[in-house]
Protein 1
Amino acid sequence: MENSSIIRIEKLVKRFPVGRSEFTALNNVNLTIDRGEFLGLVGPSGSGKTTLLNIIGSLDTPSEGVVTVLDNSIASLSHKQSSKLRNRHIGFIFQTYNLLPVYTVYENVEFALLLQKLSSNARKKAVTDALEWVGLTDKIKSKPAMLSGGECQRVAIARSMVKRPEIVLADEPTANLDSKNSHHILQTMKSLNKELNTTFIFATHDEKVMQYLNRKVSLEDGQIVKDELMKNSKN
Amino acid sequence: MIRFLLKGILRDRSRSLLPVIVVALGVFLTVFMSGWFQGIMGDMIDMNARFSSGHVKIMTRAYDENSGQAPLDLALLDVASLKKQLYVEYPDMEWVERIRSGGLLDVPDENGETRGQGPAMVTAIDLLSPESREVDRLNIPDAIVKGELPDQPGETLISDDFAEKFEVAIGDEVTLFGSTMNGSMMFYTFTVSGTIRFGNTLLDRGAIFIDIKDAQLAMDMEDGATEILGYFNNQPYIDEEAMALATSYNEKYSLEEDEFSPKMIRLAEAAGMADYLAIAENMVGMMVFIFIIAMSIVLWNTGLLGGLRRYSEFGVRLALGEEKKHIYRTTLWEAVLIGIIGSIVGTIFGLALSYRLQAHGVDFSGMMDNLGVMMPTVFRAVVTPSMYVVGFIPGVLATVMGSALAGFAIYKRKTAQLFNELEV
């Protein structure tokens, strides 16, 4: 696949109202992300990582500037269009997994496809493939409560990957995992990144994640302070 | 998606069990109370119809205006020909004549001197004709405490309370004092064949039942009656039909200028019955309304608690590309589903209890000794076709309203704000 830029951010400013004044979470951010990157937004809490991730994921809109994701200007998308963008092209992985507790592993992964109105057979194949990628085919009937933290996060990865999105946004995906599970998860994501050319964008301050990144964008007080390519990343 | 939501509802008991129980309970109460209330009101109306007003009642216009005094001098005459005419014009009805009158019942001692006296409410009906259904209509066999039904002229049934008070035994003679239709004094001696108690003060206080022929003879009312009652054959009272009947009859026979011309009134027009009928008609609607409000408030709170528990689920669904209005809509569909399940459960239990109380009833006679209203002492439910569906109105409406209120925040919030609040 061609490694063209799929996310373009120009002069992005994001302000939140705080009482009668405003808090600037992102200030004049410029960033271009190519297809297939394994990129980390790093920085301390409050630096704007999650806000930037939410805007890229079309869950939020810029106050100023332009954010274009897969040729869609985030600011001009309607509710329906932004939902469709997330549904078809963007996967999310959360720090706390956020699996639906009453559903099985299979159903949790399948849920992402229900909104796409695929046939039952197509869904079954996609779910099985996704669970194979993360090595959980033997747990399809298990409920999240029966899984370890690492297994839960692998289910979350399968859920984000099952629709084969171009972009996966992961907010502190290893924060609740031990070292061994963190590396296992990161290796899984790295291999999917290579195999499917999926763009992974992390918001993290976990050193373990940084070891796997191809590119590290450092944020401080809502501004990009460093943007570096990581030549010695794992895998 | 529907199957997915259904699985969630079935597996997540906190999301389904409590709301289903609340709805089932509310629907159960709605259905049962509706059946029981309709049963009581129906029995009350039926009792009034049987004892007092018929489904329609014909009197002279003058008697109607003074009916509280039961004035014999304003009674109907030529009753036989009136009835014959009624049967020709309204063959689907049963017509019976009755005489109501007040009087004094005198109990003599062995010397023929007065041993005791008490006021008497005379009801004269056709007690002796083999084809008469009056005895069964008034349920007299079940009301007999001692003795038996009169089987020959000159016999009477008197109130058991009266008989006990004045120590009247079966076979004793009692004398009825009163006035004839012409205003002269009336004395007529009857033999007590039995005593009766209906369990209702209005009926039992000084009640004396005599055959209509005896009454006509005693009161100089040959071929006369204070009223002719009409009953729909084998069907309950229907106000629209009664109104049509009364209107057509009055247009034909009731003359403004002739106070002795007959006038037909329907049960709803008889004293106080219009109010009872209005209450009966409106009570079910009022109950449904009350249960909708009460259940909505409970289910609103249940929905809020459920919503709090499912915040992260909603957040994930937003992130996966589900529109917030779709999420809101699915919560409403879930509510409809829960409402239907709860309504089915509640309706089954409500109908079961109603059927049981329709068959057996609950005897409140011990608590109604001094009741001054003509109503039954055994309260029964009645199962009507509407009861199969009436519970679904509060059941489904309340769950949908509760969920709609609880989920309104989802619909109104901006996606970004909601996503942040959803703690994903």
Protein 2
Amino acid sequence: MSFAWAKQYEPQSTFTKWLDEKLPLPRLVYNAVGAGYPVPRNLNYMWNFGVLAGFCLMLQIVTGVILAMHYAANAQVAFGTVEHIMRNVNWGWALRYAHANGASFFFIVIYLHIFRGLFYSSYKAPREMIWLLGVVIFLLMMATAFMGYVLPWGQMSFWGAQVITGLFSAIPVVGEPLQVWLLGGFAPDNAALNRFFSLHFLMPFVIAGVVILHIWALHIPGSSNPAGVEVKQESDTVPFHPYYTSKDGFGLGVFLIAFTAMVFFLPNALGHPDNYIEANPLSTPALIVPEWYFYPFYAILRAFTGDLTIPFTGIVLIPAKLLGVIGMFGSILVWFILPWLDKSPVRSGHYRPLFNKFFWFGLIPTMAALFYLGGAHAEEPYIMLSQIFTAYYFMHFLVILPIISQIEVPKPLPFSITEAVLGKDTPAEAPRTGTAATGDAGTLPDGSLQPAE
Amino acid sequence: MSIRLGGIIAGLAITLVLVLWSLVPGVYNFVFGPPAEKPASYAFYEHGEGPAGGFSFDGPMGTWDVAQLQRGYQVYKEVCSACHSLKFVAFRNLQQLGYTEAEVDAEAASWTVPGIDQNTGEVNTRPGEPTDYFPMPFPNAIAAAAANNNAIPPDLSLMTKARHDGSNYVYSLLTGYGEPDPAKAAKVGFETPAGLYFNKHFPNVNIAMAPPLAIDGQVTYADGTNSTIPQMAEDVAAFLTWTAEPSLVERKQTGWFVLGFLLFATALAFLSYKQIWAGLKPKKS
Amino acid sequence: MASDTAVISETGSEEGVRRRDWIHIAALSTAGVGGASLLFPLISQMAPSADVLAASSTEVDIGAIAAGQSIKTTFRKQPLFVKRLTPEEIAAAKKDDGTSMRDPQTLAERTKEGHEDILITMGVCTHLGCVPLGAAEGENKGEFGGYFCPCHGSHYDVAGRIRKGPAPLNLMVPEYSFTSDTVVRVG
């Protein structure tokens, strides 16, 4: 689907005409990321991160396929082959550092992309499917990143594999056999390393497939925008190419500057020194923490310290270990129902005073705190703090958002994207209803904003 | 509506469980329980600093001090190599330290590496060749533990990357031996266990390694540099930084080139982007 | 800016683009240069790595090889044939020195002075890389009494020179030197 004023692909040469009849791939590209895709004209820099995430995926696939040419997934030699890449392979050090830091930057980009979605409510109708597919991509990314971190077979790799597969042992009855099955043994060894390598190679292509669905779903309603009102007229949009290709090109440059600065000057700053010690099943590092991008979820996992018991009887309903696992997975799974928890018809956080307060003074400090606490030692006061922030995390999504979407009085919305960009003295093509001047806050001028309940 | 109601109930339930069963007992313990105790040894730990003036390879413009790396190699060869392996480094890599091909050949031949008799197939030893890797001082981990009071000397190839702030860590560890403050030690009842050595820069201050650099002049430097303990520690820390990351200087130099190119390309991309949008955005009235 | 009206004009923007076309060309070419230079590490990583390139050498003890016998050993992960020629073989090889060959070489060019009974060649057929027969006892030595490659029927003579079949070159003689009368250092 596209807007009626979308430009049509017109093949010029004989060859492109022939190709357009047989395999309209250029047409597909033209309509997807070319001049044939009208995009709201008011997108800010927060809308750069989708394209950047796609770039990161390609970067990881290219560098990863190359590293796989030199790596061997065998517990005897895996650590040594990584060092072989670092020391002997031409440009091996650059490729490996690019891949390792690429994972971190992929997560930075994805977190900013999710942040954008949360603040501008990109998950709301008619874009629920885009959001749901995005959460699936995020889960697949986490699995891929975890398995990739095991491959160098350093101390953190080994103990990470031990601890994360240990999460599954919390499941009642089947847990312990499940962990043994996942590892193919009683501790991480060749079997686990080999299957993690196989899956780590496969998963990026699965992610790429879901990304295609994600973009397909995006092109049904078209991109969201910072004003949160839907596209109404041609003056609301500009063609993706050259307007957003040029903007994304600039964004990519800025991204690459930050990325290469890390790769060439601080390549190990985001990793753990312990992973340069070869895996030793007999000795656990002093502080086992995952990579930084898992910190918030690791903090939630560790927040549940007490068994759920019936008071004064000593009967354990749910052990703390299982509570932590439920909490950790639940913290992401809750995003799957987010479009139905927040039913406010207004999308953009700019026009939602109450939401805005809880977002900036509740959710953002909570996430910052959880990022810090996930990397801290498991001791007081960090445990108490992660319990408080974990509680707020769940309250925010499950309790606060549904309630404020019910009681909030939104600010008046601009009539259209054109008006949002150019100001109100633009000759509008249709009469406006609510404005700030008349103060009739809460009137919803935009029919498309009504929730499709 | 039902999803929202369910969400609110679930959210309240999770919060309730977390607060009542985890947070409340935790706070109670924290306030009324016994204070968490750290081992007395932590009171003696001091975070190590690097050598005064830093290393030549520090910072984004850092480069190797080749003479220092050669001195560090000499310290490794004469002191550390008795117990510590360097298994990811080959003799041919020494060429990067400024040795000529002939010198590398001679240096390699001065080491004894395991070999196989070409006629009988028996295990024997032979002089090293440039393609050989530094030999292991012990045949296996059990032998290493048996010869070292049950502590296995770690491989040093990656040591400076395997510790936080590794180059400075190695330097401070080698210069951190001594005796704990006796008054303080008596007060908390701290004593270094038998067979271990006090080192204020080792994480739990009791290290199994005897002071490897014991006296000034322990190594007689080929280039005549005065071999004080801090000098030897600095040199070997620099050498181990090189073994951990031989590409360090090449990496930084490539980085400047790449960054310069990207700044230029991004500036052009910005101008191009502004140019494209210029026709679209009218002046704000 | 061309216009201070609030009306968006597509054509206006296109005129602007045309006027300052060079900036887009510059930006795109720079991006192209950047992308192309990325290919350098991506391609060169497949070339032999430093440990493979590091020239290794093999020492061969030739004292125990009797006349007419050969031994197979390895040099850079490839088979190496070391053969002690009999006086008859030397005579036969020298007799053929002048005949027309695909890759003309004399026996003297393929051996070291004073050691012309020692023929050291790679055991790699110059056609497509199979290992020729003839180094071990009882193997097919081909029509010229030297080596025979069973893959595609290349016949080498006693000096390892190609005489018949598809191979384009003689069996390669690696660089080597005598460290003593009985020890050869290859590489």
